[in-house]
Each structure stands twice: as structure tokens, then as C-alpha cells.
Amino acid sequence: MMTSERWWRGEAVSAWPLLQGSAAATAAWLIAGHVVRHHQPFFAPIAAVVALNTTIGERGTNALRLLLGVVIGIAIGELTIALLGGGYGRMALAMFVAMLIARHLDGARIVIAQAAAGAILTVAVANGEAGTDRLGDALIGGGVALLFSQILFTPEPVGLVRRASAVAFQQMAHALTLASRALERDDESMSEAAFDSLRELRERLADLQRMMRAGKRVVRHSLYWRSRAGAVDREVESARHVELLGGSLIMLVRSALATDASGHRSLIPVIHELGEVFAAFAAAPGDLAARRRAADRAVEVARGIGANENRHLSAITTATFTAELVASDLIALVGAPAVASSQPRIHPSVPFPPARPGAPDR
């Protein structure tokens, strides 16, 4: 029941931006067709959807980038027709110049794509007559997208960052659970699943970075949230700790899975306990009582790890082992043969690769 409820809640959250995009496209079409009296206002609704079709918190920037790309493309297309005339050769030249300028001015893919499309339509369709129509549509669609993203449905930056942190934390709990099972069963396929979960965790941490930047951007561009910048700053600072925690967890899981059987036995209780702590926190990140219980259990785990009398030696061993993992990654990357059979492997099922054919010996 809880799984079904969670699925429906996730579907509702995913559908909300789609509903906004549909409403914005319809509004743009009505404005272009009945207010401005545009005969074929097909690009206005498209521009609204394209502008809003990005991560919540970045839609206003996306709308401005769309407008920038359209303006660049139309301007270069009109200039090309005025100086050189029409034709496929001129269209190719206008498209290349427009994309080159867009890349230097912004570099975002939507700017480059819209610049190319604007130049193509201006030169190839009706010898420039479509350019001004497309510009008008872009202004209408982009304006409606800005209205929706910056005024009617302004993103809530604290929620953006908090949700991204929760998703990253859930992925950490999943990675620890898989690692614990792999260590307990000494299962190669389970180890591979744990490594796959670490790759997913990196993506979730990248999403968290984007949401932190988006939250800061919302504060800069919104009068309402500018007055509440302190709450956003606190949430971003908390998210930075989550990001650092994710990096540490990735190294922990990799180090644990790369140890031998005796190392597995000593690490199983730690990984298992940490997995339960992370899972309990991820299940109710907003519950203060749950957070306190997770913190208490984390303290117990930390004390158990730190109880070793040779703690300094253990820290040196861990750092050395981590350095060996980094060296292993580098060796695998450049395709060099292993220099010693005792070195750790980057992945349980991936030995050191042979040197690439033709690679110079050093």
C-alpha cells in the first residue's frame, strides 16, 4: 500500500511540470492567434514548451536562452540574405556563423540549436519572411514561459534542494545495502550491482549540485525569496554536507568491496549498521525524532570504529589503500599493465587491462 501511494505521489510530482507546460503552450497559442493576430502561430506554443522543458529552478534561464538563440539566428540569417542572397550555400554559412556566435556568447545547447534553427528558417523559408514571424512567436512563447516560471509558479528553492538531498541520501542507503549483501554473500554479481549503484549515486550528487545552484539563482531573481535568503543558505549548507558525505560513502564502498575475505568479515558489521542508519534517515528525513535516532546510531558506529587502539595506524592503512585505488583507476584509464599483482582492482570483475596495441613502452 505504501509503495502504491509513493508511486502515485511520484507520478503527481512528475506530472505537475507537464501540466504547466501544456497550459503555457495553450496560452501562447491563444495570444499569438487571437491577440497579436498571427496567421500561423505554430512556434509560439512550441517555444513555451521548449523553454519550460528543463529542471525546475532553471526554466527562467532556459527561456532567456531560447530567446537569445532565436535572435542570433534571425539576425545572422537576415544579414546573410542582405549581403549574399539566398541559396543552400548561404544557408549553411548563416547556420555555421549563428552557431559559432551562440557558442561564444552562451554555449548552452538550447542557444546553439535555436540559433541554427532561426538561421535556417530565415534563409531557407520564404527568403527571410519567416524570420520576423518566428521572432514574434519566440517573444510570445518565451514571455509566457517567464510568466509561468518566475511569477505564477515560482520554484521554492528550499524544497528544491531538500528533495535533491533526500534522493541522494536514499541512493546512499541503497548502495550501502547492496554492499552489505555483497560482503555477506561474497557474491560477484551483487558487487557489480553495488558498483552500479555508486554510478547512480554520482548522478544524484550531480543533480544535487544543480539544485544548489538553482536555489541560489532563484534567490537572486525573486524578490520574495531574496528576503528569505537565510533559509536557502542554511539548506544549501546542509546539502554541501550531503555532497561530501556522498563522496566519502563512494570511497568507503569501493574500499570495502576491494578487500579480501578477511577484510570482508571485519567490515560487514560496519557496512550493515551504516546501511540501516542511512535507510532509517532516508525514510523520514524531515522527522526530528528519526534524525536524532539516526545520529545516535551513527555515534555508536563511530565509537566502535574508533575503539581500535591502533587508530593512527588504521588511518594510515586506509589512506594508503585509498591511494592504491586511485592509482588502480589511473592504470586502468591509461591502459597500462599491472606492475604488481597485489594491487587492488578497480572493480571485482575487471582485472588490470593489457597495454593498448602500439602504446609506447616506458
Per-chain topology:
Elements: H1 2-35, H2 43-52, H3 59-84, H4 88-105, H5 109-124, H6 129-152, H7 157-185, H8 188-221, H9 223-226, H10 229-257, H11 261-283, H12 288-306, H13 311-334
Helix pairs in contact: 1-2, 1-6, 2-3, 2-6, 3-4, 3-5, 3-6, 4-5, 5-6, 7-8, 7-10, 7-11, 8-10, 11-12
Salient structural properties:
elongated; disordered C terminus; mainly alpha; 13 helices; 362 residues
Task: State the gist of this model.
The chain has 362 residues and is mainly alpha-helical. The protein contains 13 helices and no strands.
Beta strand count? 0
Figure out the total of helices: 13
Overall helicity: over 70%
Structural class: mainly alpha
List low-confidence stretches.
338-362
Quaternary form: single chain
Shape annotation: elongated
Q: Helix and strand succession?
A: HHHHHHHHHHHHH
Strand content: under 5%
Number of domains: 2
Terminal Cα span = 62 Å
Question: What's the average pLDDT?
Answer: 78
Computed over alpha carbons, the radius of gyration is: 27 Å
Largest sheet: none
Walk me through what this model shows:
This protein is mainly α and 362 residues long. The chain has 2 domains: 19-152, no CATH class; 157-307, no CATH class. It is built from 13 helices and no strands. The termini are far apart.
